[in-house]
Design a protein that fits this description.
The complex is a heterodimer of chains A (464) and B (499). By secondary structure, chain A is an alpha+beta fold. Chain A has nine helices and 19 strands. In chain A, the strands form three sheets. In chain A, strands 3-2-1-4-5-6 form a six-stranded antiparallel β-sheet. In chain A, strands 10-9-8-11-18-17 form a six-stranded mixed β-sheet, covered by helices on one side. Classes of the chains: A alpha+beta (464), B alpha+beta (499).
Chain lengths: 464, 499
């Protein structure tokens, strides 16, 4: 499929923007996004969409009283990039100085920089849609109701700087998730899969997992709120670790107001967070989870700088051997605080070397406890401890003598993912997974199942 | 208010190209939106510029209902050729999903409204204020806080949005609407000698107003910034709460979010019917309870309203061509209505939607989104907040929203606040730390003993209500008076964290 006729080749847009720049330095980014999705509920398709988006961002450098300024402007569609450069320059000329200034990056030129953006369309989801028809029929026959979402997108990023850097990356991202509910609303189950191209996805595989979980719900038992041994499957661990990952800001830690701040000043880098040899890492070359090998950001923030566009990502262990190893800093912030620069990378992996076992294996190693399906509506209660609250969703099951023996109610939890790393009683093998709540934030995650023996289920939720 | 210059070009030609192409393909139900959304964010840390974004999104999106299925296609390319090509893409999308369709999609009827032009009330479009002026305002406010004793850090930011939306459909509605919104907010942080810290955020709500809001129209910024350092110092030195049951007097700056989560979302009919079961969730307030479900005490009267002045969800015509309306959701404590779009209205057998369709981008399909959902104050003079506090022997006065969480059927919730004040024998006696309140929706609203009068009413809200897949964010306002709620479960968050 060819790109929309009204949109110029992205490489040409970058070059035109850089050529138009009259300032001390310039960065031009072009994000092209092609998406196709199908949504379904109550055993029917509901909404869908195919869409093409383009956003062009120009960041130009200026100077006021000997200090660097930055002007940033972004527009979507068929952009007059010269006009956009002038808008950014006008902002830079009137801007207050910024603290994240650093020399623009040059050097690397990707050979495919002149190529067109990647695309997708609904044909990628054709097999899934075809499978859904049968799945709806089977659900109706079993007195169940299916809902879910299949989505595929291809995002193409072009970055160029006035120092000669030219980077291009094409990122395909896809997922299918399905919820099955009993028609009377008393039971539900959720299953999902992340994928780059849907070649490895069938609705039947997810249906089988949903069947198994709904069968567990045939027997319902009561378990009160309180502290329980809880087996968190990889999906639930992913949501907790993604939240922890968002709290890794170096500047906030330096300023004394995060869980990673050291009382009295500085950060907790080097502190032991867990007695287990856990590693939390991001790596653009992670097998099966590959992502952009360079930074492309359309604005600065506390830990990410537009000056750093094109900065090469490296394998980064945020936590290694159970110790806090790295925090997020842009180059200027890293220099100020004597740290190494690290920017957000598009995947996250938690792994314990040598750990083995699936979620089912952890269940079999648990004498008495609860098995959670996934977590939902997770929000920060106390930044000092990173205490989070949230709820279990779509299935909580009682474990007795290593077996699932029935379904229990949902619970509200209050827990800190930092504390949980220190209290992990059993850890399994790491597998690719999708968080229930934050997979839109970070689709590419790999996590182990984890058992925590005193997980705080604060109150019962009657939701089913 | 003069029309705004936009990058949309010949909008009428784009609308005509998309609708004409759809009609030529035999489509009878089609609507198109051509939009420009300009969004700016300026953020300062300790008085220095940290981040500035200025993004303009344009695009055109076409929805068809064809052969019993929905099809949607959109592009950022505003050429008439691109707009016309959307028709074939949308029809193809409807054809692809038809293979899995088991029941046809229908839309409740809506009469055509001809040509409509509407602008939200404001004096100064906030995106037209130069970035340097925004920085200067935030820097002055930051310095004011940083100069106060006990304030160690200040984060300040302002978000400003100006959107122009042109809607057209085959029925004959052609609406051009422009609305603005702005949200300034500051967070002050105080560190203690033991390595602990507390924060306090301004409680000034986001509003459907222009830059004049920062000049004091609709909020007394001087008064709030004057009080904040002292309030923060008091909080840092305050004792930890003793968990248990307390009577709560809840200020509208906190209660709006409880309304949003436990009433606003629970009375969305698409949720109640199961259309959000995979993502946002469902609702305990199912249609069989309409007219009978005891949602709250008899003083609880909640209205959905897309016409409220300065409301963040206020429009003239929604994104399906339906006229904006006001309607009861809870009346005398009983579930009285739902928020509808045209598809859910048809499923429910209603003769018309009440105008709650919205898409946050021209590239997203409209879905049912929240109206301004507001708790009505007591009729007449009603009690003041002080009078409500005066009726409490042992309780807490809750001000300003902070964290929030609720389950997928909207039963079990937990909220914290910017400030929890202890009430003893009808008087405020200082703040408490480490506090959260938890409840179950119908029990909580059933325990509302009194609602304050009009003098306590405030319209609050958020820019970022999330729903749908792919995810969409919507701005929405919630008005509320102060309320008195008896016997609410209060937690100590440090104890919850095992400390």
């Amino acid at each position: 499929m060819s790109p929309p006729g009204g949109l110029a080749p992205p490489g040409d847009v970058v070059e035109a923007g850089l050529a138009a720049s009259r300032g001390a330095g310039c960065v031009v980014l072009v994000h092209d996004r092609s998406e196709a999705d199908v949504r379904f509920a109550v055993n029917r398709t509901t909404t869908n969409g195919v869409r093409r988006a383009r956003t062009v961002t120009v960041a130009t450098l200026g100077e006021v009283d000997g200090r660097a300024t930055l002007g940033v402007a972004s527009r979507s569609g068929a952009v007059d990039v010269t006009d956009l450069v002038r808008a950014a320059e006008a902002v830079a000329a009137a801007s207050a100085p910024v603290d994240d200034a650093a020399p623009l990056l040059g050097g690397t030129v990707d050979g495919d920089f002149g190529e067109a953006p990647g695309t997708t369309d609904l044909s990628v989801l054709a097999d899934v849609v075809a499978g859904l028809g049968g799945a709806f029929d089977r659900a109706e026959a079993a007195n169940r109701v299916l809902a879910g979402f299949a989505t595929h997108e291809v995002e193409t990023t072009h970055v160029g700087t006035s120092e000669g850097l030219r980077r291009r990356h094409v990122q395909p991202t896809g997922s299918l998730e399905v919820v099955a509910r009993t028609a009377d609303g008393t039971g539900s189950a959720w299953a999902s899969v992340g994928t780059a191209d849907f070649a490895d996805v069938t609705t039947e595989a997810l249906e089988a997992e949903l069947d198994r979980r709904l069968a567990w719900g045939a027997r319902r038992v009561e378990v009160p709120a309180g502290r329980h041994a809880v087996v968190l499957p990889p999906s639930a661990v992913a949501d907790l670790m993604v939240y922890l990952w968002t709290a890794l800001g170096g500047q906030d830690a330096e300023d004394g107001h995060t869980v990673f701040s050291r009382p009295g000043g500085g950060t907790r880098v080097g502190d032991e967070l867990s007695g287990r040899a856990l590693q939390l890492r991001s790596d653009p070359a992670e097998p099966g989870l590959a992502c952009a090998p360079f930074l492309a950001t359309s604005s600065s923030s506390a830990n990410v700088s537009a000056f750093d566009n094109g900065l090469a990502h490296e394998r980064t262990a945020w936590i290694d051997g159970g110790r806090l190893e790295r925090l997020l800093y842009h180059r200027a912030g890293a220099a100020r605080h004597g740290a190494r620069a690290a920017s957000p990378i598009g995947n996250l992996v938690l792994e314990e070397p040598g750990a083995a076992g699936t979620t089912e294996d952890l269940v079999s190693r648990t004498e008495r406890g609860l098995l959670v399906t996934c977590l939902w509506y997770i929000r920060e209660v106390d930044p000092a401890t990173l205490l989070l609250t949230g709820l279990t969703r779509d299935g909580v099951y009682r474990i007795e003598d290593g077996e699932v023996t029935g379904a229990v109610t949902n619970f509200r939890f209050n827990e800190s993912p930092v504390d949980l790393l220190g209290r992990a009683a059993d850890v399994g093998a790491t597998v690719r997974t999708l968080g229930r709540e934050f997979s839109e934030v970070l689709n590419r995650t790999a996590m182990p199942p984890v058992r925590v023996d005193d997980f705080n289920m604060s109150t019962v939720s009657p939701a089913s | 208010m003069a029309p705004r210059d936009t990058a949309l070009g010949d909008v009428d030609a784009v609308v005509a190209a998309a609708l004409g192409a759809a009609e030529r393909l035999g489509v009878r139900e089609a609507s198109v939106r051509v939009e420009e959304i300009r969004e700016q964010v300026v953020a300062l840390r300790d008085g220095s510029l940290e981040a500035a974004r200025d993004r303009t999104e344009v695009g055109v999106g076409l929805r068809v209902v064809h052969g019993g299925s929905v099809g949607f296609a959109a592009t950022a390319d505003l050429s008439t050729d691109a707009a016309a090509s959307l028709a074939a893409q949308a029809v193809e999308a409807a054809r692809v999903v038809a293979s899995a369709q088991r029941r046809p999609v229908e839309l409740a009827p809506e009469p055509p409204h001809g040509t409509v032009t509407w602008t939200s009330p404001h004096r100064v479009d906030p995106v037209d204020v130069p970035q340097a002026d925004k920085v200067a305002r935030l820097e002055a406010w930051s310095r004011r806080l940083l100069d106060a004793p006990g304030v160690d850090h200040v984060a300040a930011a302002v978000q400003a949005v100006s959107e122009t939306k042109v809607y057209g459909d085959l029925a004959g509605t052609h609406a051009t609407q422009r609305r603005v919104r702005v949200h300034p907010h500051l967070v002050a942080t105080a560190l203690d000698d033991a390595g602990g810290f507390e924060t306090m955020r301004t409680v000034a709500p986001p509003v459907g107003r222009g830059w004049e809001y920062l000049d004091g129209e609709g909020w007394d910024w001087d008064a709030e910034l004057d009080r904040l350092p002292e309030q923060l110092a008091e909080k840092l030195a305050s004792p930890s709460v003793e968990p248990g049951r307390y009577d709560l007097v809840i200020d509208p700056t906190n209660l709006w979010l409880t309304i949003h989560e436990s009433i606003g979302h629970a009375t969305e009919l698409d949720r109640a019917l199961g259309y959000e079961a995979a993502y946002a969730g469902t609702s305990f307030a199912t249609p069989d309870g309409l007219g009978s479900l005891a949602y709250g005490s008899d003083v609880v009267h909640v209205v959905g309203d897309r016409t409220q002045e300065h409301g963040l969800a206020t429009v003239a015509i929604d994104d399906e061509g339906v006229e904006a309306q006001s309607f009861d959701l809870i009346r005398d404590g009983v579930l009285a209505g739902y928020q509808l779009d045209r598809a859910t209205a048809a499923v429910a057998g209603r003769d018309r939607s009440n105008g709650c369709a919205f898409a946050d981008s021209p590239l997203h399909v409209p879905i049912q989104r929240m109206a301004n959902v507001s708790l009505q104050p007591a009729p007449g003079d009603g009690p003041s907040t002080e009078e409500l506090i005066g009726g409490v022997e042992r309780g807490l006065y809750v001000v300003g929203d902070r964290s929030w969480s609720i389950d997928m059927q909207r039963y079990n919730f937990q909220f914290t606040a910017q400030r929890f004040y202890r009430i003893e024998r009808g008087r405020l006696v200082g703040q408490l730390r480490d506090t959260a309140y938890q409840g179950t929706t119908t029990e909580f609203w059933g325990s509302v003993e009194a609602v304050g009068g009009r003098s306590t009413y405030l319209l609050c809200g958020a820019f970022n209500c999330g729903k749908g897949q792919p995810g969409q964010v919507a701005p929405v306002s919630h008005g509320a008076p102060s309320v008195l709620v008896r016997g609410v479960n209060v937690l100590n968050t440090k104890a919850e964290g095992g400390r």
